[in-house]
Each structure stands twice: as C-alpha cells, then as structure tokens.
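Project outcomes to date are best conveyed with an example. Our students and postdoctoral researchers have been running inverse folding experiments weekly, and each run begins with a structure described purely in tokens. The record below, which covers 237 residues, was selected by the lab manager from last quarter's runs and is presented without edits.
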C-alpha cells in the first residue's frame, strides 16, 4: 500500500451466525444523566439501529433482540406508552430504509395485543422482508420464554407431539432459525429474565456493566472476540 498503513484486521475473528442481545440499562442510563427514563429508551433505540447495521456489515446472519418482555407491562403506563411510541417511530423509519439496507425483520412474541397501528407496521415489515435474503433481525416484543413455550406446547399437541425435540423447536417463534451462539446482556444484571429459555441452552453468555445506550460497536467486537476464545463442547469433550 502506497498511501499509508493497511487497516489492521479486527481482533474479533469471525462473528457467530446468531447473536442475541438483552437490551438492558436504558432507565439507569437516563437516571445517571438526570433525564426521564423514556430518554433512555430513545437512546437505546438509536443504539439498536447502529448495532443492527454493524451486525449486518460484519456478516452476522441473525440478530435477536429483547425489546419488551411479557413482564414489562408491569411498568407505569406512561413508560409502556413511550416504548410503544418509539417502536412505532422506529418501524416507520425502518420501512423506508429496508429496501436500501436489505435487512429482514421478524417479530417474536404475542403481537396480537399491540395497537392496530403497530400491528399494521409489523405486517408491512413482514411483507417487505419476504423479498430479501441475508441478515435477519428478530425483535422480541411482548415476548417471554415461558409464554413462547406454552404456546409451542399447545401447537405441538395439535401436531400430535410429532418430531421429538425438533418438533417442539418448530413450534417456537424461532422455528427454522438456528439457536443463538452468543447471548449478550449489557446493563450489569446476570440473568436471562425470561429470554430465549429453550434456544439459549448452549449459547455462550457474555455479561457487561455497560448500559445499553452506551454499548459500542467496539464492545460488540470484544464480545465476539471473547466468544471466539471459548471452547464450545455441547456436552462432548
Ligand atoms: C431495558 O432497559 C428496556 C426495557 C426493558 C423495555 P430498562 O428500562 O430495563 O433499564 P433499567 O434496567 O431500568 O436501567
Ligand atoms: C429484560 O430487562 C427485558 C428487556 C430488556 C426487554 P428487564 O429490565 O425487564 O429485566 P429485569 O426486570 O431486570 O429482570
Ligand atoms: Mg432493566
């Protein structure tokens, strides 16, 4: 190279096929700044947008994010409404950009209880997504691992409990999608909070104190580098 040093290869190595993220710490991020919690959710939505683009750019095939749990309805009405408002805003903007970004979007969770406007936006993103191949982002909204398993059990019974473990997997929201390889939880808590209970059976877990709005692309690289240092044995030796 005549015009300067060649850019160093990233230390992170190959990214895993499927990364899952519990996007936690928005409220504390806002509180630290003397802002309302909803400002933290707005900042968190921007982080999500940036990380999703980065995942696509580095070749991650699936990104599954936890945006709103079945338990999050316990929060004050104003906060729930603000989160749903941000989802609405995000989807409207995403629909405009999907053709350009060519990122597929899918929703995990019981979306039937969401507002008609949100359901229409979700239907629209589903429809656009059918035209693309490649990186897929799964957004978990009104999602709970136990709720998903209850729903799957009902569906599986209708199917006569066929197919063993794979048969049950095929009844989950994640049917047809490989299990997450790496599960990241920012925000300092070290628990699953009802996220991907079945699918995370052999996920490598990565916890960090960084609050989600502060989560950088470099930190994702660090998590992937750590993942690549782990020895995955799946019960073998
Ligand atoms: C995660 O951030 C977003 C949602 C659960 C909707 P939090 O709102 O849980 O932020 P903290 O954990 O209170 O800081
Ligand atoms: C998990 O975060 C849910 C999402 C990030 C959407 P919570 O903040 O709801 O989890 P807990 O209450 O700390 O377990
Ligand atoms: Mg939290």
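After processing, the design step wrote out the following sequence:
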């Amino acid at each position: 190279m005549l015009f300067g040093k060649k850019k160093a290869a990233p230390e992170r190595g190959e990214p895993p096929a499927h990364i899952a993220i519990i996007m936690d710490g928005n409220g504390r991020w806002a509180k630290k700044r003397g802002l309302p919690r909803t400002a933290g959710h707005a900042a968190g939505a921007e982080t999500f947008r940036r990380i999703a683009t980065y995942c696509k750019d580095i070749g991650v095939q699936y990104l599954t994010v936890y945006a709103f749990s079945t338990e999050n309805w316990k929060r004050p009405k104003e906060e729930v409404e603000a989160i749903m408002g941000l989802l609405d805003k995000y989807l409207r903007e995403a629909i405009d950009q999907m053709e350009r970004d060519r990122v597929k979007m899918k929703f995990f969770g019981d979306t039937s209880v969401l507002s008609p406007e949100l359901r229409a936006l979700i239907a629209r993103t589903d429809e656009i997504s059918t035209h693309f191949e490649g990186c897929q982002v799964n957004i978990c909204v009104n999602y709970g691992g136990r709720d998903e398993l209850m729903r799957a059990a009902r569906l599986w019974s209708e199917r006569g409990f066929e197919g063993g473990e794979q048969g049950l997997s095929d009844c989950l929201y994640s049917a047809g999608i490989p299990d997450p390889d790496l599960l990241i939880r920012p925000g300092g808590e070290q628990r699953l909070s009802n996220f991907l209970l079945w699918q995370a059976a052999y996920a490598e877990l990565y916890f960090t104190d960084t609050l989600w709005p502060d989560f950088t692309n470099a930190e994702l690289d660090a998590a992937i580098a750590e993942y690549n240092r782990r020895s995955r044995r799946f019960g073998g030796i």
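Residues 77-101 form the longest helix (25 residues). Residues 44 and 173 are 24 Å apart (CA to CA). The training component of this project remains on track.
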